[in-house]
Structure formats: structure tokens, C-alpha cells
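User: Hi! I'm working on a homework problem where we have to compare a predicted structure to a textbook description. Could you give me the structure for the chain below?
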Amino acid sequence: HVQLVESGGGSVQAGGSLRLSCVASGYTFSTKCMVWLRQAPEKERERVGFIRTSGSTTFTTDSVKGRFTISRDDAKRTVYLQMNSLKPEDTAMYYCAAGRGYGSNWKSASAYNFWGQGTQVTVS
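Assistant: Happy to help. Predicted C-alpha cells:
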């Protein structure tokens, strides 16, 4: 069955770094765009960024641009989110998802084929 398993979250001081990983199984990883999203308590879900197949296109939202980098290793079936210069406002549950979340419909559940269970990032 399909699984997306995130790891690498934790607690860090402002200015610190974390690298999140999301390992996929059960489907052809290289054929899907991978998206990182986050949701803080009482806030709307936010698309952090995405990386399309073969790493051909990457995008990060303005609030993390220049601090966060998305990459993928298709051989390892893994997508990464390198987070530097972390701020308290980056505190959230971070999720990876596979599908068409590169488009304007990224807020719709129908844009995604698969979701991970999330990993918590807390910045103080």
C-alpha cells in the first residue's frame, strides 16, 4: 500500500536549521510532483513549496523563500525540505503530499493522491 513517511521534525531555536525527509513507497515516486505543506494551530494550511518530476521545477512560498529549499532523490524515493534561519512563525505540522499540488487548486484535497502523517516543527 502507499505510504509517505515524514521525519526530521523537532524543536529548534530561532535561527537554527532542520531537514525534513519524506520517504515514499507503494507507487512510482518519480512520476509525481511532491509538495510540502504546513499547518499551524488555528491557521489555514499553507503550501510551503513543491518540486515537480525530475526536479525540473521548484517553488517556495514567499514567506520561506531564500530560507527553505526543496529537493528530491528519485533513487531513494525521498523528498527533502531543508529549512534554514528558522523563525517562530515557522512552527507548524509539516506534511508531504504527492499529486498536482503545483497548481492553483493546491488547497483542494482532490489535488493530491497521497499524504503523509506529518512531522511537527517547533521554533522558539
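For your comparison, note the following. The chain has no helices and eleven strands. The mean pLDDT is 95. Good luck with the assignment!
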